[in-house]
C-alpha cells in the first residue's frame, strides 16, 4: 500500500483532550485521521472522509455514538466501528453490538490496547490494507514484520523494527528521545534514555548510514529521518 492510500480512521469524542491524545497517537502510527466532536459532525465526516475504522464515544451531543453507529452500518459502506464509553456496563455493550458495532472499549483504556483492537478489525474486515507500505527507499511490511531498504531486507530485532518503522513513518519530523521512548518502548519504560542512542547507532550501521545523512541527529532536540 502506498502512503497516499493510508488507512483512514474517524475519531468522534466530545472530550478535546482525549480527541487530541488519540489523534496524535494514531497519526504517529501512520494512520490518516479525521476528528469530530459531536454525532452530526461525525456522520458528515464519514460521508466525505470514507473511513475504514470509526472510533465513536457513546455519549456525544447532537447524536449519540449509538445513533452514529446505526447510521454508519445502514449506509452500506464497509466500515469497522469501535465504541468507547466512560462506563463498562453490559447493557451498553449489548446495545452497541446489537446496532452493529464491531468492538467495544471502556474508558480509561491503554493506547496500545486500542491499536491492537484497530489492527484486529483491519485484519478481519480489510485484510488487503495491511500490505507493504513504501516510503522512499523503505518498504515496510507488517504482515512479515519486515523492512526493506534499497531492495534489501534488513536484519532487525523486534525493537529495531519498531524504532525504524516509527522514524520512517514520521520522516521529516524531529522526534525527541522522550517521544521515541514513549512510542517505541512504551510509557512505563524505566531505563535510561541513552538506550535510544544505542539503537540509533545500530540502525545506522545496518543502513550503511555512516555519515548520518539518513537518520540525522539534531543536537539537544532529537532525530529526524530525511528521505531522498
TrEMBL record:
GO terms for biological process: regulation of DNA-templated transcription. InterPro entries: CheY-like_superfamily, OmpR/PhoB-type_DNA-bd, Sig_transdc_resp-reg_C-effctor, Sig_transdc_resp-reg_receiver, WalR-like, WH-like_DNA-bd_sf. Residues 8-122 form the Response regulatory domain. The modification 4-aspartylphosphate is found at residue 57. Gene3D superfamilies: 3.40.50.2300, 6.10.250.690, Winged helix-like DNA-binding domain superfamily/Winged helix DNA-binding domain (1.10.10.10). Residues 130-227 form the OmpR/PhoB-type domain. One of its GO terms (molecular function) is transcription cis-regulatory region binding. One of its GO terms (cellular component) is protein-DNA complex. The keyword Transcription applies. The keyword Zinc does not apply. Residues 130-227 bind DNA. It holds the Pfam family Response_reg. Keywords: DNA-binding, Phosphoprotein, Transcription, Transcription regulation, Two-component regulatory system. PANTHER family: REGULATOR OF RPOS, TWO-COMPONENT RESPONSE REGULATOR ORR33. This is DNA-binding response OmpR family regulator. It comes from Paenibacillus methanolicus.
